[in-house]
Design a protein that fits this description.
There is one protein chain. The protein is globular, with a radius of gyration of 18 Å. By secondary structure, the chain is mostly helical. The mean pLDDT is 80. The two termini are 35 Å apart. The chain has helices at residues 3-15, 23-35, 42-50, 53-63, 78-85, 87-102, 109-136, 140-149, 152-159, 179-190, 195-206, 216-226, 241-252, 254-263, 265-275.
Length: 276
C-alpha cells in the first residue's frame, strides 16, 4: 500500500471511531471535556487536575511563569494556580499534555522525532501567544491553544510507527501533499477541538500568509517561521528561507520584530518550559 492510500486508511479509521488513546491521554481528554462545561467550578477543576500529576505540575509552573505572574509572588498550591490561569489557559495546558502523550513512548529514531516535534510545538505555541498580543491582535489564549494542537496529527502518526515503519523517513516524517490536513483534521475533530481553532489550523495547512497578518492562521504561520526548532514532519525547505525571512521582516518590521523577541525572551522561554 502506498503512503497516500495508507493515510486515507488511517484517516478513515479515525473517523470511524477507532482512534485509541493511552490511559493518560484518555484522562486528559476527560478533563478537557469537563473544563468545557460552563458549570464546572474552580474547586472541581482543581480536584480533577490534582489526579494527573504531570498536568498539575504544568499548571503550577505556568502560573509562576513570567507571562502569568507579573507580581513575582510564587504560587505553590494548585487551587491558586487554577484561579490565576483561568479555564481557557487550563484547556491549553490539558491539551498540551494530551498532544505530547498521544505519541506514546517508543524508542530509537521515533523517540527522537517525537522529542523534536514537541520542542517545535512548544515554541510555536509560546511564540503564537506572544505574536497574538503584539502583532496580529487576535485572541492570545486561542493562539496558545492552536499552537499546542497544530501538529497533533503528526503525533498520532508517530504513535503508529512501530506497527507501520514505512510512515517514517530516515530523519523526518515525510508527509505527502495533503496528508497532514487529512490526518490532522480527523484527529482534531475526534478530540473535539473547537471549530474556530480547526479553521485556523486549516488555514495554516494551506500556507498562505496574508499581508498584513490579521488572522489566527497568520499568527500560526508567523510563529512557525520564527520557531528556532523546525518540525521534523517535513524536509526543511532551505531554498525558501531567505525569501521567508525577508517577508517576515517586511510584515512586522525588522526593528519591531527584534524588539518584540528581545523584550519577550523570558516570557517565551518561561511558557515554552512550562509546556514541555
Amino acid at each position: 500500500m502506498d503512503l497516500e492510500k495508507r493515510y486515507q486508511s488511517i484517516a478513515a479509521s479515525i473517523s470511524d471511531g477507532s482512534l485509541s488513546f493511552p490511559t493518560s491521554v484518555g484522562n486528559a481528554l476527560k478533563i478537557q471535556q469537563i473544563l468545557d462545561d460552563p458549570d464546572c467550578a474552580l474547586d472541581q477543576a482543581a480536584r480533577l487536575i490534582q489526579g494527573e500529576p504531570l498536568l498539575a505540575a504544568r499548571v503550577v509552573a505556568t502560573a509562576n511563569s513570567v507571562a502569568y505572574n507579573r507580581s513575582g509572588r510564587e504560587i505553590t498550591d494548585l487551587r491558586t494556580a487554577v484561579s490565576r490561569l483561568g479555564f481557557r489557559t487550563l484547556r491549553s495546558l490539558t491539551m498540551a499534555v494530551l498532544t505530547r502523550q498521544m505519541a506514546g513512548n517508543p524508542s530509537g529514531a521515533t523517540q527522537k522525532l517525537i522529542g523534536q516535534l514537541w520542542t517545535h510545538t512548544a515554541y510555536v505555541a509560546a511564540i503564537a501567544h506572544l505574536l497574538a498580543r503584539r502583532v496580529t491582535h487576535v485572541d492570545p489564549e486561542a493562539a496558545l491553544f492552536a499552537g499546542v494542537v497544530h501538529e497533533v496529527g503528526g503525533f498520532y502518526l508517530l504513535s503508529l510507527a512501530s506497527q507501520s515503519p514505512e510512515l517514517i523517513g530516515d530523519d523526518h516524517l515525510p508527509w505527502l501533499e495533503g496528508g497532514e490536513a487529512l490526518i490532522g483534521r480527523a484527529v482534531l475533530e475526534k478530540i473535539g477541538v473547537p471549530a474556530n481553532i480547526l479553521e485556523a489550523i486549516a488555514g495554516y495547512w494551506e500556507g498562505y500568509l496574508a499581508i498584513p497578518p490579521v488572522s489566527l492562521a497568520d499568527t500560526l504561520l508567523l510563529a512557525k517561521q520564527l520557531a528556532p526548532v523546525p518540525s521534523p514532519l517535513r524536509q526543511p525547505e532551505t531554498s525558501e528561507a531567505p525569501a521567508l525571512s525577508a517577508q517576515i521582516d517586511m510584515i512586522v518590521g525588522e526593528d519591531m520584530l527584534s524588539s518584540i523577541l528581545q523584550d519577550a525572551h523570558e516570557e517565551v522561554s518561561s511558557l515554552m518550559q512550562a509546556l514541555q
